[in-house]
Task: inverse folding
């Protein structure tokens, strides 16, 4: 029963993040910041440690690539959701008008 509660809680959190534009943008900014920090740390701070072996190098830059790709997919989702929201808002506003549409 506990597993089902965790799953439902996760779905509610994800729904809350994805539903509201301000929340999406805040999370998108956090993911972008984390990606940039990982890149900067990999290039300047951890360069000697990453050069110590190929597995360390591949794991670090693989994780960085995955986070960056996730951020990119999240940005595309945000853009598509924003377009959908604006179309729905424009359709709702045009329906209130008394003048005929051309």
Result:
């Amino acid at each position: 029963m506990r597993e089902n509660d965790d799953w439902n809680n996760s779905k509610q959190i994800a729904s809350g993040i994805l539903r509201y534009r301000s929340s999406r943008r805040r999370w998108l900014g956090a993911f972008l910041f984390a990606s940039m920090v990982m890149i900067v740390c990999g290039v300047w701070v951890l360069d000697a440690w990453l050069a110590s072996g190929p597995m360390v190098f591949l794991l670090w830059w693989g994780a960085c690539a995955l986070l960056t790709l996730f951020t990119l997919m999240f940005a595309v989702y945000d853009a598509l959701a924003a377009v959908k929201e604006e179309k729905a808002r424009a359709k709702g506003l045009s329906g209130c008008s008394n003048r005929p549409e051309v």
Q: What stands out?
A: The CA atoms of residues 91 and 97 lie 10 Å apart. The chain has a mean pLDDT of 87.
